[in-house]
Amino acid sequence: MAESIALEIAGERMQAWADRALYWPARRRLLIADLHLGKGNTFRSAGIAVPTGGTDRDLARLDRLVAATQAASLWILGDFLHAARHAAVDIAWREFRARHASLEIGVIAGNHDCALDADAAGVVALPDGLSDGPFAFRHAPGAAGAGAHLICGHLHPVAKLPDVGRHPLFWLGRSMTVLPAFSLFTGGQVVPLSECAGSVVCNGSAAYRLPGHPA
Amino acid sequence: MTADGTRQRFDAPLSAWFASRGWKAAAFQRETWRRYRRGESGLLVSPTGSGKTLAALGGVLLDACHDTKATTGKRGNKVAPRTRLLWITPLRALANDTLRALREPVDALGLDWTIALRTGDASARDKRLARQGRADALVITPESLALLLSYPETREQLSGLQAILVDEWHELLGNKRGVLLQLCLARLRAWSPTVRIWGMSATLGNLAEARDVLLPHAPDATIVHAGSARSLSIHTLLPEHGERFPWAGHLGLSQMQRVSGQLDQARSTLLFANTRSQAELWHRALSAIWLDEPSSLALHHGSLDARLRAQVEQGLRDGTVRCAVATSSLDLGVDFPTVDQVIQIGSPKGMARLLQRAGRARHRPGEAGRVICVPTHALELAEYAAVREALAAGEIESRPAPILSVDVLAQHCVTLALGGGFDPRQLKDEVKGTHAFADMSDAVWQAVLDYIVRGGAALENYPEYRRVVIDEAGIYRVSDRRVAFRHRLSIGTISSDGALQVKLLRGGSLGSVEESFLARLRPRDRFQFAGRTLELVRLQGMTAYVRVVKQADGIVPRWQGGRMPLSTALGARVARVLADPPQSPEMQALAPLLTLQAEVSALPAPERLLVEWTRTREGWHLFVFPFAGRGLHEGLAALLALRWSRQAPNTFAFAVNDYGLVLTAKAETDVGAEQIHQLLDPHGLDLDLREGANLGELARRQFRDIARVAGLLPPSLPGRQARSLRQLQASSGLLFDVLRAHDPGHMLLQQAEREVFEQTLDIAALRQLLARCHALDIDLQSPRHLTPLSFPLWAEMVRGTLSSEDWQTRVRRAAQQLERRHG
Description:
The structure holds two protein chains of two kinds. Chain A is α/β, with parallel strands linked by helices. Helices cover 19% and strands 31% of the residues of chain A. Chain A has helices spanning 39-45, 54-69, 87-99, 118-121, and strands spanning 4-9, 12-17, 21-24, 29-32, 73-76, 104-108, 124-126, 130-132, 135-137, 149-152, 157-161, 165-172, 176-178, 189-190, 200-202, 207-209. In chain A, the strands form two sheets. In chain A, strands 8, 9, 10, 11, 12, 13, 14, 15 and 16 form a nine-stranded mixed sheet that branches. In chain A, strands 1-2-3-4-5-6-7 form a seven-stranded mixed sheet, with helices on one face. In chain A, α2 (54-69) packs parallel to α3. The radius of gyration of chain A is 16 Å and the shape is globular. Chain B is an alpha/beta fold. Helices cover 44% and strands 15% of the residues of chain B. Chain B has a seven-stranded parallel sheet, sandwiched between helices. A six-stranded parallel sheet of chain B has the order 8-13-12-9-11-10, with helices on both faces. Chain B has a five-stranded mixed sheet with strand order 17-16-20-19-18. Chain A binds chain B through residues 40-54, 57, 82-83, 86, 88, 112, 162-163, 184-187, 189-190, 192, and chain B through 451, 455-456, 460-467, 480, 482-483, 486-487, 519-520, 711-714, 724, 727-731, 733-735, 737-739, 741-743, 746, 801.
């Protein structure tokens, strides 16, 4: 099973999982961002031959994370969908929802989520900027409110390490944490290494905390 | 000859015009006209600027004169004008010059012709004329021709085509743009079976192949030679006697003063650099000491805005530009007779390339071409001596033509599906009539059709896929407007990294820079581009807004594609001149360094393979010097690293340059001559390479171009991003990973792997190289320090692991230490 490493963020004990999810034990809540369901379908219907399988694989990863963390809730910080809804994706998601009937799932709408129908998806629509404990949650970086630590996605941060290449990044700052994009079919924006002190890189099966302290 | 006789001659109108200019038609020109008039196609081989345009064009013009006489059509009353001549040019930058070059004789012969440009830079008027088929002659690039074929009405408009003239065919022959052109020509031939096709090419090592690729339908077509290749005199700017010369140079700016002296001696100069960043740096350094009008010093490279480039070209023509620092963007094309001298900074890379560059400037019939070479490091002296020897021996590189590029074929099929649809049986025959696809199997053809219709071979992998559909009559068509829009945007096979437009905040475009470079910058960061120091203000969409700043302290963008390998033929020549130095000024200047090399190690020799084993702070290094060019060394290094690590577990890093390769072991180890001999065994090459060359990573890199050509990557539009494309952004690497995971047998993945084997690694050449090295005696030296031959490789290796600033500082320091030690 994928490894995780323990962190302290804004005084809270958290776990960064190597498969691109953040877990908050005190709330038994799994946090991910940028699921981009249906991205491959959108490509295919535009005439770009991307094979199927991406959605199933992403949801299977989520299955394993929910099982491994025993999470009671799952929050998706935006870009739940990639674009339009597709029948095959709706089915795959409904099956996922049925497998985790007792899991509470909340979604903050992201910039890709125009077509999101929370009721149909069986999820709770959460407001952008919602706060809980020391944290505020948004899809994209923005104001967090006085003293709150922002947790968000949207940027798809990756770190580019010499000789090792690009890897998804939990980009930790003193007042903000940016989650890596959860979907495997996503690209990333390279964060300069000078800004990655104390951040966590991961490759799906292992996570590694870069030396230094978040700035 | 009597006046009467002149009139009856077939070329009378042209000869009369020639005579009025005080010219006389050359034998090769008359031969080409005669053959053209007889309905033949052919290949015209000429050194640049020796009247080839008139040679190729003459027959078409004579035909037109003849037609006019026959029909005596009234001016302004032309009936259904149709395009009769296509002039295909590889470079947009050439098109304007070509237009002028066509205009003159057309007007002189009193032909009432509309000539239009149909390239990416064409005006709206010209594009309209081209679309409507109302131009008699069209100047067009292969990509724009492909674009024309995507419109159904093109067939009608081009069906009266009489002649296709392909300029600079040697530039297209060896790449996928040439493959695209082969396919387009096959289509045009199907529409007008009698169309005559003439290629114009520089001298090549494989002219017969060049002809067969262009004219697969006309075996044994003639090759007309425009006289012998002009002799080229190579003059090298030598270091002063006793002057210390860098062992591993990068930019050659230490030669600044001497170059500046040369510039003063001529009225105008073309200064060629090998990379765009080198050109930017030289331009910056020259402007610091430039005493003339600042606008008389110009910069020309492929990332600059077309308008800026055109200004520079105009300036070169009318003499307002005294020095243009250029890259291969000016290698080709219509020449600049007003330019007095050509200077080459750094390695010539090959015979053909140096000839091409030298040919850009003033050349009068019978006059020898001349090029001044400026070495950026010591060993380039040997390259100049070698290139001179090779040219004297008449040796010149070949350009093999790629075959079975299924990505290009897939693109072409979609283009035709869009341009009125195609019948697969007919199209298969047409495609198999080209050189590139002559050996295409039915399975490959089916895979291409499957890809464009169903997405891939396994239908269940690609539900909801829409691109090409088959109608009731079995005709393949594109009906989706979004697919059509996207395909037209992405037609063409030249690919580059996603490019960002660079614009001044006040307005005005400067050109485009690769995304990977600009993505590293943050607002207020400075960089050098288009000969100015710019400050990034903001990135917005696909545009970088910048302002000009006064202080020249910006970093210089590093573009991809700058690392052209030394040609294998030149590499072999370099090894020969090092082993047995000819009496040339370059080799005399190099003598002290070679003496040092011989003292601390040994010189390369034809019957021995020089290998050096040295320890430095970085580790234990094995330097091998086959002199086969960077490309082959890369494959060889991967192979040796794998085999060595099998014998003794260790971690190896490697680096290559044009002369050799270095393997660096991280853990202590030792090596013997017999062991090296075993490492070079040609047996098991295929399997080992598959395992050792990091094939996955190489294929991933190769896949970028393939994905773009085959339409997997949405086109990136400089300056604007169409709304419909926003949701289709994905990098080629990501697509590669997804395909590997979910459709590993995909046609395009196989294509990527095949290209890696055949092109990147060039396995056939690698096998030969290995056999050659295996047969040689191993001359294993263990110098205590780095040698003149090994130092540049060591620098290359260090460069791979550190940022560029650190690298430069560090290398400079190391170089100083070394030169002190041996000084």
